[in-house]
Amino acid sequence: MGLFTTLLELPLAPVKGVIRLGELLRDEAERKLHDPTVIRRELDEIEAAQAAGELTEEEAEEAMTEILQRMTGGD
How does pLDDT run across 6-42, given as a tens digit for each residue? Predict the structure, then answer.
Protein backbone atom coordinates (compact mmCIF):
# COMPACT_ATOMS: atom_id res chain seq x y z
CA MET A 1 0.00 0.00 0.00
CA GLY A 2 2.93 2.36 0.67
CA LEU A 3 4.14 2.27 -2.93
CA PHE A 4 0.63 2.95 -4.25
CA THR A 5 0.19 5.92 -1.88
CA THR A 6 3.61 7.28 -2.84
CA LEU A 7 2.73 7.12 -6.53
CA LEU A 8 -0.55 8.94 -5.94
CA GLU A 9 1.11 11.66 -3.85
CA LEU A 10 4.02 12.17 -6.24
CA PRO A 11 2.29 14.87 -8.33
CA LEU A 12 1.72 16.87 -5.12
CA ALA A 13 5.41 16.87 -4.17
CA PRO A 14 6.17 20.28 -5.76
CA VAL A 15 3.19 21.84 -4.01
CA LYS A 16 4.27 20.38 -0.68
CA GLY A 17 7.78 21.73 -1.29
CA VAL A 18 6.49 25.24 -2.00
CA ILE A 19 4.31 25.13 1.13
CA ARG A 20 7.27 24.03 3.25
CA LEU A 21 9.45 26.77 1.75
CA GLY A 22 6.77 29.36 2.59
CA GLU A 23 6.62 28.07 6.16
CA LEU A 24 10.40 28.32 6.51
CA LEU A 25 10.41 31.88 5.14
CA ARG A 26 7.60 32.87 7.52
CA ASP A 27 9.43 31.37 10.50
CA GLU A 28 12.65 33.19 9.60
CA ALA A 29 10.83 36.50 9.13
CA GLU A 30 9.13 36.13 12.51
CA ARG A 31 12.44 35.25 14.15
CA LYS A 32 14.08 38.36 12.74
CA LEU A 33 11.05 40.48 13.59
CA HIS A 34 11.32 39.60 17.27
CA ASP A 35 15.11 39.25 17.60
CA PRO A 36 16.30 41.49 20.47
CA THR A 37 19.53 42.31 18.65
CA VAL A 38 17.67 43.56 15.58
CA ILE A 39 15.24 45.54 17.73
CA ARG A 40 18.09 47.17 19.68
CA ARG A 41 19.85 48.10 16.42
CA GLU A 42 16.64 49.64 15.02
CA LEU A 43 16.17 51.68 18.20
CA ASP A 44 19.80 52.84 18.04
CA GLU A 45 19.33 53.87 14.39
CA ILE A 46 16.26 55.90 15.31
CA GLU A 47 18.15 57.62 18.13
CA ALA A 48 21.07 58.38 15.81
CA ALA A 49 18.76 59.76 13.12
CA GLN A 50 17.05 61.95 15.68
CA ALA A 51 20.40 63.20 16.99
CA ALA A 52 21.49 63.99 13.42
CA GLY A 53 18.30 65.95 12.86
CA GLU A 54 16.92 63.52 10.27
CA LEU A 55 13.87 62.77 12.43
CA THR A 56 11.75 65.03 14.57
CA GLU A 57 11.03 64.01 18.13
CA GLU A 58 7.48 63.03 17.17
CA GLU A 59 8.69 60.88 14.27
CA ALA A 60 11.25 59.18 16.51
CA GLU A 61 8.65 58.48 19.20
CA GLU A 62 6.28 57.07 16.60
CA ALA A 63 8.97 54.79 15.15
CA MET A 64 10.02 53.60 18.61
CA THR A 65 6.42 52.93 19.56
CA GLU A 66 5.95 50.80 16.44
CA ILE A 67 9.05 48.75 17.27
CA LEU A 68 8.02 48.27 20.89
CA GLN A 69 4.49 47.25 19.88
CA ARG A 70 5.94 44.73 17.46
CA MET A 71 8.21 43.42 20.21
CA THR A 72 5.36 42.99 22.69
CA GLY A 73 2.96 41.56 20.13
CA GLY A 74 0.71 44.60 20.03
CA ASP A 75 0.51 44.63 16.22
Answer: 888 888 889 999 999 999 999 998 888 888 898 899 9
The span from the CA of 24 to the CA of 31, in Å, is 11
Q: Cα–Cα distance between 14 and 20 in angstroms, integer?
A: 10
DSSP for 35-62, please give it.
-HHHHHHHHHHHHHHHHTTSS-HHHHHH
Rounded to 5 degrees, φ, ψ at 29 are: -65, -40
Domain boundaries, given as residue ranges, for the chain: 11-72
How many other C-beta atoms are found inside a 10 Å radius of the C-beta of residue 1? 5
pTM, two decimal places: 0.60
